[in-house]
């Protein structure tokens, strides 16, 4: 366990190193979040009853999404890993006395968690200070907050497990661009990053909510806002555990196969 | 320490002629050529030996190193390193070995070298006191004290190579594989690296296998030379044996002698 935690230490110190990047990222998140909320406000003005979530709930969703962007973001690959697989530097990774899957999983989680930890506070604080209904609303009870936290951690693990599939596919395709782009675009849309899943038409929505992508961003944010509660909440969290198990098992299978047939090219 | 017998590995390489029509043809029908990277390689190396592994480009040197370090599974043949089959139990095997790939890097690009070392310490689970001891010894021998706090990206190639060496030895491996460790280094760095390898072998009885194209490396380091060509071991002896095997006159320098020998063996 200690060896995996050391990735966090390294990632934290790396994250702290890039101050300008963090600042620029923050500015983007504020601008993007503000823009989305203004756009939604225009829609809600036309007919507030046409929407499945209240404006307040939507605003909360948008700010939380911005605050925890790095935690679930579908583009959050470890580019070093992809680069190492394509270039062959992965030879070194294979010379380490640890499971490659576990090592890369820890790295991915470490990057996501440390980047989020360094960046989420300004958005959360400012979001909480904004006047209703434009800011983040408080959760109705502590229990709800705890469920959202658990679901958030699961969501981050599921997001990372999706990334792992992309890494190991690179052992077969050599260049990761195709799989990476498809995976990121699909996840982006299907996890509710573009529009929250409740906004999807009936029929499609029910299917999307069962997919692993919904187990990332969609679940914790809607649990927080109270949109998912009661028996649906239990079902959502169980589904998150289920997808985490399936994705990790699939990744490990892919790993075993890749290790057997890997050829590090070049001298 | 190392027993290798009848190792074989064949790669399939896609080939086509130049031109658009050929490219179009290759879209539907690929022609593959089988390359016998290893074609029945056998040798054995005792504990504490320092062996130079030479041969022209594409002879199978790197493939052998990859098999020995457990990252390439051969098609057939047997291989025992310290009583273990490298590719069977990769994780346990790699604990015993250190590898330096001269053309790749194992240090984290953005952070000071010492951070990479600390991470390796955790990954190999090196006890704290052993780590301290190894680090101070390596720092002294490789003259690293000025470099440890510098980010890897700001090191020169020679400085980086010294750090790579140290990184591969932090866990006191009993066997060290060096794949072209002096490639691209200036005279001073080359001498420093050679001196260090000699000292390591003398004081710690580390078994060293070194591939190189620089015959001065071999003259300085290896008491025994393995010559490989077209996937076969062609000569196993001392540098003197190489001089004797070459049919040319004795006055030429070692590079010319070797080139003559390659010609004789038609490799």
UniProtKB/TrEMBL annotation, chain A:
Keyword line: Membrane, Transmembrane, Transmembrane helix
Transmembrane segments: 20-43, 113-133, 145-168, 228-251
InterPro entries, per database record: ABC-2_transporter-like
Protein name per the record: ABC-2 family transporter protein
Organism: Neglectibacter timonensis
């Amino acid at each position: 366990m200690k060896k995996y935690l050391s990735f966090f230490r390294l990632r934290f110190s790396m994250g702290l190193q890039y101050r300008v990047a963090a600042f620029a990222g923050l500015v983007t998140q504020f601008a993007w979040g503000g823009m989305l909320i203004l756009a939604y406000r225009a829609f809600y003005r036309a007919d507030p009853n046409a929407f499945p979530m209240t404006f307040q709930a939507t605003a909360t969703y948008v700010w939380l999404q911005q605050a925890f962007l790095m935690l679930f973001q579908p583009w959050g690959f470890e580019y070093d890993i992809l680069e190492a697989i394509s270039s062959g530097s992965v030879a070194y990774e294979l010379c380490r006395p640890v499971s490659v899957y576990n090592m890369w999983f820890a790295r991915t989680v470490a990057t996501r968690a440390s980047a989020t930890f360094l960046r989420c506070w300004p958005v959360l604080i400012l979001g909480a200070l904004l006047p209703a209904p434009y800011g983040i609303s408080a959760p109705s009870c502590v229990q709800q907050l705890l469920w959202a936290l658990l679901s958030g951690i699961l969501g981050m693990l599921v997001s990372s497990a999706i990334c792992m599939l992309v890494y190991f596919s690179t052992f077969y395709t050599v260049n990761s661009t195709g799989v990476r782009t498809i995976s990121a675009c699909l996840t982006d849309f299907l996890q509710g990053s573009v529009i929250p899943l409740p906004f999807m038409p009936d029929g499609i929505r029910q299917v999307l909510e069962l997919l692993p992508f919904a187990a990332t961003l969609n679940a914790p944010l809607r649990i927080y806002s109270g949109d998912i509660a009661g028996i649906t909440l239990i079902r959502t969290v169980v589904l998150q555990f289920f997808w985490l198990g399936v994705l990790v098992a699939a990744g490990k299978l892919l790993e075993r196969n890749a290790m057997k047939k890997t050829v590090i090219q070049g001298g | 320490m190392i027993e290798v017998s009848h190792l074989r590995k064949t790669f399939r390489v896609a080939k086509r002629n130049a031109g658009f029509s050929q490219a179009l043809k290759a879209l539907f029908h690929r022609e593959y050529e089988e390359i016998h990277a290893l074609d029945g390689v056998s040798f054995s190396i005792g504990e504490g030996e320092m062996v130079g592994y030479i041969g022209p480009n594409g002879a199978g040197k790197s493939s052998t190193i990859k098999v020995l370090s457990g990252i390439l599974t051969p098609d057939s043949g047997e291989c025992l390193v310290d009583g273990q089959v490298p590719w069977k139990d990769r994780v346990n095997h790699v604990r015993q070995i250190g590898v330096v790939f001269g053309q790749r890097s194992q240090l984290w690009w953005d952070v000071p070298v010492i951070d990479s070392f600390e991470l390796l310490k955790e990954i190999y689970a090196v006890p704290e006191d052993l780590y301290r001891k190894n680090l101070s010894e390596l720092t002294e021998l490789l003259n690293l004290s000025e470099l440890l706090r510098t980010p890897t990206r700001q090191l020169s190639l020679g400085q980086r190579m010294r750090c790579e060496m140290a990184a591969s030895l932090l866990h006191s491996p009993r066997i060290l594989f060096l794949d072209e460790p002096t490639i691209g280094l200036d005279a001073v760095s080359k001498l420093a690296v050679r001196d260090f390898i000699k000292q390591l072998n003398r004081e710690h009885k580390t078994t060293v296998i070194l591939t190189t194209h620089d015959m001065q490396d071999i003259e300085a380091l290896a008491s025994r030379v393995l010559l490989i060509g077209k996937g076969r071991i062609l000569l196993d002896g001392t540098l003197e044996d190489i001089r004797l095997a070459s049919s040319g006159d004795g006055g030429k320098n070692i590079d010319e002698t070797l080139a003559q020998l390659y010609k004789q063996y038609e490799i």
